[in-house]
Amino acid sequence: MACQGLQGGETVASLKRESESLRKKLEEERKKLSDIELNQVAEKIEVLGPLSIKTRRVLKGHGNKVLCMDWCKDKRRLVSSSQDGKVIVWDAFTLNKEHGVALPCTWVMACAYAPSGCAVACGGLDNKCSVFPLSLDKNENLSAKKKSVAMHTNYVSGCTFTSSDMQILTSSGDGTCALWDVESGQLLQSFHGHTADVLSLDLAPSETGNTFVSGGCDKKANIWDMRSGQNIQSFESHESDINCVKYYPSGDAFASASDDATCRFYDLRADREVAVYQKDSVIFGASTVDFSLSGRLLFAGYNDYTINVWDVLKGTRASILFGHENRVSRVRVSPDGTALCSASWDNTLRVSWAAYL
Amino acid sequence: MLSVVMSNNNASNNLITAKRAVNQLRLEASIRRIKVSQAAAELRNFCLQNASKDPLLVGVPSSDNPFRPPKSCSLF
Question: Coiled-coil annotation: which residues (chain A) (predicted)?
Fold first, then answer.
């Protein structure tokens, strides 16, 4: 990465002073445009009626904590990964386990379904992200076709395919994110800027272009340009590790979940935090977030085993979902917005949906 | 992949890191921003426009729900 020329006479001290004054200027610029609160804009909207979201499926089969899951585009299959090293592909309607792979490592922290539905990617403590093509032949050994794609110098915390099966984006405990070509395993772009483990990433909805958001242990959420590797925007308002980041469906904003027991909402065009979702009674860290289809609801999984459903606009809690018997590690709304899947350290996944009209 | 090694003894590395930080902040400070009131209004409008199509928000009729309990099959 080329470094812009050092001017004569610049010292570390003078640069640090300039850094400080730029940071202050950034804060001032953001404050100037902060003329109203999001919940004030939402005052005239009707309060949400009682939500009745019920659990209809409990997926049992993992031998240890379920750390991650991802829906297939067909809205019925999903992939999950566990501390026990296993990755399972399920049919959520029938509870059928369609595929299973045992990785040589434990703590498979990340898994993702390919857009085509024909492959899954996963990684974790092995510092790698591997892609497995899903065979129609149930007897075929999936491990034999494993393709090692990503190589980090620390654990892989998150992975996602981009718009096709050809590229994956990964986040890692080594403080970087990276874009890889699946076929060749080549590193296409790396993203440097976080000063500690990166714990989560999310790709912008396709209409909004080539950017993604990442969050990590440095309490920062960063927006990146995928082509140039440039860090375009940075947000630092959480008081502890950011465990999860997720784009708002329009692509103009994103939410984050943190160990500081809050979830926050950041607007990209206003370049600032616009809401904090918190309650005195919510004292455990939030590990995962996802939006409902319209973006009105924010589902957040916590270390106190519950899922809080936040009214994104009004900033209030709309509902709490109980059922898991240990930490909720991941929540994901299905591609058509019909169902919510939650994965937990209680070794199960639960699929829930809104009760009938 | 280059990794910058932070070493107290290596003054030029400190300088490069500090310069990178300044360049990054200059970039971030220079982006165009809109008022929160405008951004918030657009977020609200997006929610309201899509609310009726949000199954977890409004629910779905039983006949459309793929996860409904299977009905028993009757032959007549």
Answer: 12-39
Which tokens in the block code for residue A65?
Answer: 């904590």
Which residue bears the tokens 């075929």?
A: A140
CB A343 within 8 Å of CB A351: no
Q: Which residue has the higher pLDDT, B65 or A59?
A: A59
Nearest in space to A93 (alpha carbons), one of A299, A325, A334: A334
Chain A residues lying within 8 Å of B14, measured CB to CB: 12
Cα distance between residue B1 and residue A1, in whole Å? 9
Tell me whether residue A253 is exposed, middle or buried, using C-beta atoms within 10 angstroms of its C-beta: 0 to 12, 13 to 18, 19 or more. buried
A267 touches B at CB < 8 Å: yes
Contact between residue A341 and residue A74 where contact means Cβ atoms under 8 Å apart:
no
Answer left, alpha or beta for residue A37, where phi above 0 means left and psi between -120 and 50 means alpha.
Answer: beta
Distance from C-alpha of B26 to C-alpha of A234, rounded to nearest angstrom: 12
Q: Please give the pLDDT value at position B20.
A: 87
pTM, rounded to two decimals: 0.91
Instruction: Write the residue in B14, B18, B33 that is nearest to A269 by C-beta.
Output: B33
CA-nearest of A196, A198, A17, A168 to B21 is A17
- Which DSSP state fits B71? P
Interface probe, candidates A1, A90, A269, chain B, greatest B C-beta count within 10 A: A269
Distance of alpha carbon A341 from alpha carbon B75, whole angstroms = 35
Pairing mode, if any, of strands A66-71 and A53-60? unpaired
Record: contact B56-A340, CB cut-off 8 A = yes
For chain A, which ranges sit under pLDDT 70? 1-9, 138-139, 207-208, 356-357
CB atoms near residue A139 (< 10 Å): 5
State the best of A176, A267, A291, A352 to mutate against chain B, taking most chain B CBs within 10 Å. Answer: A267
User: Which pLDDT score, from 0 to 100, does residue A144 have?
Assistant: 80
Contact A158, A200 (CB under 8 A): yes
